[in-house]
Amino acid sequence: MGLLGTRWEAKYEGHAVVVSRNEVTRGIALAWDGTEIAHRTWSWVGLGELHGTADVGGQSVEVHVKLDGGDGASKGVGTDGRCTITVNGKALEVTHVK
């Protein structure tokens, strides 16, 4: 778990998708190519969902983020859990950065 924040990154058709969680306030944010497209100011124990809309080649796409406790090996206090990102229903490969 990051000391003050946790971050996950993914790519979608050349676009950068970043999910960040503030460990102090438990707020979570979703950024698309460096621009925030969704956020929550507080989530229960850093878990929750975000929904946003982004532009890909002139078309709007739905971006969905889910933070959960992860599988049995990563559940519990002191873990970052799991971040799932989907764009128009397609799951992305997500990298836990910090």
User: Could you name the ranges where pLDDT drops below 50 across 5 or more consecutive residues?
Assistant: 72-77
**Strand-residue proportion:** over 45%
Taken in chain order, the helices and strands follow as: EEEEEEEEE
Approximate shape = globular
Number of strands: 9
Distance between the termini: 7 Å
Key features of this structure:
mainly beta; 98 residues; single chain; 5-stranded antiparallel sheet
Structure notes:
The protein is built from no helices and nine strands. A five-stranded antiparallel β-sheet has the order 4-3-2-1-9, with no helix packed on it. The chain has a four-stranded antiparallel β-sheet with strand order 5-6-7-8, with no helix packed on it. It has 98 residues and is mainly beta. The N and C termini lie close together (7 Å). Helices cover 0% and strands 57% of the residues.
